[in-house]
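Notes from the 1:1 (GR / supervisor)

We went over the backlog. Supervisor wanted to see one worked example end to end before approving the batch request, so GR pasted a single chain during the call. The sequence is below; no edits were made to it. Supervisor asked that the structure be written out right there so they could see what the output format looks like.
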Amino acid sequence: MPSPLPTLLTQKDTFTLPADIHYLNCATRSPLSQRVEQAGLDAIRRDTNPFGLHPDDFFSGAMRVRALFSQLVNNPDAERIAIVPSVSYGMAVVARNLHNKPGIRAGQRIVLVGSEFPSDVYAWDRVRTELGLTVTTVGIPDEFPKGAIWNERLLDAIGPDTALVVAPPVHWMYGTRFDLEAVGKRARDVGAWLAVDGTQAIGALPFDLAAIQPDAVICAGYKWLMGPYSIGLAYYGPAFDEGTPLEEGWMNRLDSNQFHRLMDYQPIYRPKAYRYNVGEHSHFLQMPMLEAALSQLNEWQPERIQAYAEALMRDVWPALEALGCRIEPVDEHQGRAHHLVGVWLPDHADPMAIQQALQAEKVSVSARAQALRIAPHLYNTPEDAAALVRVLTQVIM
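Structure output shown during the call:
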């Protein structure tokens, strides 16, 4: 048995958040750590004088980032990682290549989780019309707790007529976990593709790509990866190796680092996911910041981030339940995570009004439908947790 990981203490001192701010809202956007901030400043300084820039410098940063992200998600092959600007771009690659899926035919279904983020829904509008597919949405159950029932209904919806399943590790609004190992197995059993939006989990929740075996995983960089905005990462499995990219970037072709030969036009792509890189994917400012963020996350490790969030908020949840709130219990891979928790408010409560009351007391969370989304991280302290309980007690009672 491996020895237990050492417990993490708060990392607040590695961030520059004001002392009087209680930021429990990483699911909206992560603050940049001092290490990431410094990487960005250093990159700007380097860009003030591009003298001595080498062709390989256009590629080396992305290579390091691919390796770091692969380490984070247990991906044995970094060449399967592409640099993307957004989840919508990454999902558009899946939609663009769905017609290449073996056995695809009119009448098949795309299975989605209900109340999913728009980028995971809009991506299929055009392709379902073109291919004659239908969309089945597995809605959130009325019953409570919801996780086990929702997972069961999702698995039941995946059948021989399913072409594609789109599911997250953690629901972006409610924090409900989906057992992606079970979903992946069911998808493989019926010959369906599995596309995962890992944005609200990867970086803070352990993610084992080798165990899940998805066909695609797309992850924005500015939430739990703790990097800058407008850059993300995507994994594309063997099903996409000969696929069609969204754009024909010159950097994605073989030998594109040989600048003196760029006019010898190259029809062959670099291998595996490289063809799906967004144009100008060097990102000389953002890439060093994302590299610093991923290095830090690999040091902290998602298991320890989960453990810290669990310990930090352990007394918060019963206190909120005493106010009439409902919170999904922890139930392995189909309950709730610790880094993103949906707090279902009493029926009489107005989520937006409560969010505004919290904001007035410098407590930052998000209102989503009839729930508050609480998203703690290593920069949070017991004072943040206490402030959340104090203000909610005042406005709900």
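Supervisor's comment: Residues 135 and 295 are 39 Å apart (CA to CA).
Batch request approved.
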